[in-house]
Write a structure and sequence with these properties.
Shape: globular
Number of strands: 11
Radius of gyration: 18 Å
Distance between the termini: 15 Å
Strand order of the largest sheet: 4-10-11-7
Order of helices and strands: EEEEEEHEHHEEEHE
Mean pLDDT: 83
Helix content: 10-25%
Largest sheet: 4 strands, mixed
Low-confidence stretches: none
Strand content: 25-35%
Number of helices: 4
């Protein structure tokens, strides 16, 4: 599957802006578009850049409403030596921790691509060239489970990721409207009254260079 880009153009329909581009998939050229929300003032998403990891793992502690969190393997010992389950989800705000965001390509198109600057929009479309077709990322993201300090741990097989800050309220909105049946846990800190200014770092897997 190959994808090429023409110049990304911004067009408006009924005061709604779209970014229009030309893509070639399986030798078929077509025009597609995404909403242009990069500077919409809501601040739902900010791109930090592309990161490559040597030993990224995902930690899945046992317990109701506990989120899985990604980190470099060298961080695992310090975070899992003494787990306080009531405070576990707050590790998502640790500067060395991330949330692995890898839903269907349609979710990437609807919730991520509209906010990306042109540079990262082009880059991400190389991995997710069509909103309703399988992405170019191997869906076997994780290795088999290992156990460490009584938590489950999985190594992530991919090295390259687009790293972004996502507003927690936007994250919860995506969980609410885009996933059925709802996952467990469904939301981050659903009872808190202080979510509006909080962000988490998310990772979108990109095609690794051969």
């Amino acid at each position: 599957m190959i994808i090429f880009f023409a110049l990304i153009s911004v067009v408006s329909f009924a005061q709604t802006e779209y970014r229009v581009f030309e893509v070639t998939i399986n030798e078929e050229t077509k025009i597609d578009s995404v909403l242009n929300l990069e500077n919409d003032g809501k601040g739902n998403l900010f791109v930090l850049g592309v990161i490559e990891f040597d030993s990224l793992v995902r930690i899945l502690p046992k317990g109701k409403n506990l989120f899985s969190i990604c980190m470099e393997k060298e961080m695992v010992k310090g975070i899992t030596t003494c787990i306080n389950k009531s405070k576990w989800n707050y590790n998502i705000f640790n500067p060395n921790c991330y949330y692995f965001f890898a839903y269907m390509p349609s979710s990437i198109w609807y919730y991520i691509l509209p906010y990306l600057p042109e540079k990262y929009l082009k880059l991400t479309l190389l991995s997710y060239p069509h909103r309703f077709m399988p992405c170019k990322i191997d869906d076997s993201f994780f290795s088999d489970y290992e156990y460490y300090n009584n938590v489950r741990m999985q190594r992530l097989k991919h090295r390259s990721y687009l790293c972004m800050l996502m507003k927690v309220t936007y994250f919860n909105e995506i969980r609410r409207v885009d996933m059925y049946p709802p996952p467990k846990p469904q939301y981050l800190f659903p009872d808190s009254k202080f979510l509006e200014g909080l962000y988490i770092k998310i990772l979108i897997p990109l095609v690794d260079e051969k």
